[in-house]
Amino acid sequence: MTESHPTFTPYKAPAGGWGSVRSLLRHGTGDGAPTIEGSRQLQRQNKIDGFACVSCSWAKPAEPHTFEFCENGAKATMWELDTRRVDAAFFAEHTVSELLTWADHDLEVQGRLVEPMRYDADSDRYVPVSWDEAFAIAGRVLRDMAPERAVFYASGRASLETSYMYALLARLYGNNNLPDSSNMCHESTSVGLPRSIGVPVGTVLLEDFEHCDCILSFGQNVGVNSPRMLHPLQEAARRGAEIITFNPLYERGWERFTNPQEPLAMATGASTRISNAYFPVRAGGDIALMQGLARALLDLDDAAQDEGRARVLDVGFIDTHTNGFEAFEAWLRAADWSDIERESGLSRADIEGVAGVYAQAESSILIYGMGLTQHRHGVDNVRMVCNLALMRGNVGRPGAGICPVRGHSNVQGQRTVGISEKPELVPLDTLAAQYSFEPPREKGLDTIGTVEGILDGSVEAFIGLGGNFSRAAPDTGRVEPAWRGLALSLQIATHLNRNHLLCGRETLLLPCLGRIEEDVQNGVAQRVSIEDSTTCIHASFGTSPPAGPMLRSEPAIVAALAQAILPPERAACAPWQEWVDDYARVRDAIEATYPDQFRDFNARLHTPGGFPRPVAARERRWTTDSGKAEFHVPEVLCATGFEDKAGRYRLLTVRSNDQFNTTVYGYHDRFRGIDGTRRVVLMNADDIAELGLDDGEQITLAADFDGDAEVREVGGLRAIPYRIPRGCIAAYYPECNPLIPVSHHAIDSHVPAGKSVPVRVVRGGNAPVPPGPAPG
Ligand SMILES: Nc1nc2c(c(=O)[nH]1)N[C@H]1C(S)=C(S)[C@@H](COP(=O)(O)OP(=O)(O)OC[C@H]3O[C@@H](n4cnc5c(=O)[nH]c(N)nc54)[C@H](O)[C@@H]3O)O[C@H]1N2
Ligand SMILES: Nc1nc2c(c(=O)[nH]1)N[C@H]1C(S)=C(S)[C@@H](COP(=O)(O)OP(=O)(O)OC[C@H]3O[C@@H](n4cnc5c(=O)[nH]c(N)nc54)[C@H](O)[C@@H]3O)O[C@H]1N2
Ligand SMILES: [Mo]
């Protein structure tokens, strides 16, 4: 079950290329891999009348490549089409206590869940339960509960149709407790962008990549997390666009790429350089970095004015379209280069060099990911990106814009159709009229609120539409025991994960169809839809045979749940059965609630490349309070929210190339040269030496928060020398989540600050060790 002989070797090849084909083969020909069905389905991935990839949310082009998928998308497809089954016989063989000792990988690799199950405390096992009985149990617990004590979590994969129904279910039940994986992810974007540019989403469309001449990227790992984005990047690089990356780690995808779809490149090993320049900013150093870039732009603008040359700032745009530039300019003029250099870890000369490139580019795209959002000052990070874009008018014109790269394939869409704990973001009056009920108006619980509620006992029921909440959320060590106090833990899922093993007084595990599978309702194969990172809506049509006869679709499960847990007069507010019989009717309902966003939804469902929702900032309309785009002066230069001190490191938690969030496909982090284990800490060689450690020595990480009495440690890790700035260390998520207290989250957006966690590095130690293969 475990892989032995861990090895650590620097990776020199480009992203993509033969390495990705080999990596795919490892998965495509493994025990449970459906090779023929797999290759049939891969050709339908991200195509018109095919299915939308279940991995990342990157845009899908109107004219797809023959193979419009990447290594990691293909792994996700193979994972869903797994031929292994987690059935009643599997659960009869293993107690829950035993399964709790298994690693994340070992649980999920058992295959697809195929029968509804209920936890039986006497035998400490999951036992079969009928669908009717499962819904009846949920109804018994939830009908007696005060509505505010139940939480309806969604992981960002479920379709627009399911998500719309699910959000309505929560509101009919009586709360806005709709936390989403987005709360742990791009919520800093959803809070920061509206304040700066009036919309919660990026402004870039795929075609903008054809017209840009500069791309700045901050804290995103394209080669692993959105590999299909390497195609537009490669094309931009070949056209001569300048691409500049800021990341504490040298991520291979931003360095070089060999396109597996180009036979000549594959034959010759030719690769395309992606970034012209790469700067290892300190974790949490981006506000300072961007202040430096902005200050250097101002200096260039001063010089241009002195010499009578064209202005560097887009003064026409700033005057007409923005607010707050004077205060921002004053802040820049007061900036101190020694502070900027110390906090960013980069030299003034380098920063000025990049500013020079940005100043000359006609149209620039600014890309970012979790490296900016998952910090105490993550919202400031996002707003600094906006500041930089606004200075040169890089919003709302072709080839320019802000490009947050979202995570789960429909995480953005879930928010669009009402999954939000923030009632002000949802057209509640429209819902009230459409469904003749009074929706709850109080703010609901987000991820942080849910964790706090589980810890203090105020949350009594958790309903999970996908995901692995307890594993993805912070403070794992405290959340896991508290989970057992829940009256109900109900999970709708495709694969077994650790969260399912945390059992409350009633625990239900309900298996659902995945998006690749055929979903026949009322004799007709149904389609669903998703929204990608660039706000384009796509149809998704599954044709693979379902993993088992007992599986139900997510819309069918949500509808049955609604009928089971709502009082009859409430359940009657929405046509649940009609919706399940024909998902097109759900799309009509979505259009009725959001007429501007989803005009002619069913008619446009199959638009090649998807149809874009209208985004005001794209047209230079600013839906902020002032009616203008807002410059913003951050309060601090350092995004971490804690002081530096001797012996305190900034831990950034990252994903490997062999995982999708908490789904660990295997132990091969190819680009980082780590094979066979995940129990590693990547450290600067000088830090290893200064601590008197040997390379590869066993260490423990201990959380180091001022005034925090709780002991939070992860042991059994190995210190590996790596190219990373001094004082920063990197290790894997979710293994390191016990180190993050629930209080360590972004101000305002509440995104857990997993990219800068203060820790001490302790030699040896006997703290709890994450399950999984040990370093050799
Ligand atoms: N194959 C695969 N694809 C995925 C996922 C997956 O797990 N596997 N997850 C999906 C999800 S839900 C999401 S949200 C996205 C996540 O995709 P990303 O946004 O790429 O997220 P991470 O892998 O967490 O890492 C972000 C990057 O930020 C860098 N970084 C860390 N701290 C800082 C900092 O302070 N400043 C800067 N400039 N950089 C920093 C890290 O080195 C890393 O390269 O990917 C999605 N796609
Ligand atoms: N320290 C640290 N913590 C993090 C992060 C980090 O970078 N560092 N990243 C955060 C981010 S960006 C995110 S998005 C969260 C992820 O948090 P989640 O979205 O909650 O977690 P996943 O690992 O994506 O969920 C995997 C599970 O989803 C279920 N599943 C898969 N497909 C389907 C489906 O089609 N339907 C249903 N119903 N279930 C399905 C499977 O059972 C699988 O076990 O984690 C966050 N936590
Ligand atoms: Mo995410």
Automatic annotation (TrEMBL):
A Pfam family matched in the record: Molybdopterin
Cofactor(s) the protein needs: Mo-bis(molybdopterin guanine dinucleotide); [4Fe-4S] cluster
Biological source species: Luteimonas terrae
Keywords, sorted A to Z: 4Fe-4S, Iron, Iron-sulfur, Metal-binding, Molybdenum, Oxidoreductase
Family: Belongs to the prokaryotic molybdopterin-containing oxidoreductase family.
UniProt-recorded name of the protein: Molybdopterin-dependent oxidoreductase alpha subunit
Start and end residues of each Molybdopterin dinucleotide-binding domain: 649-735
Signal peptide limits: none
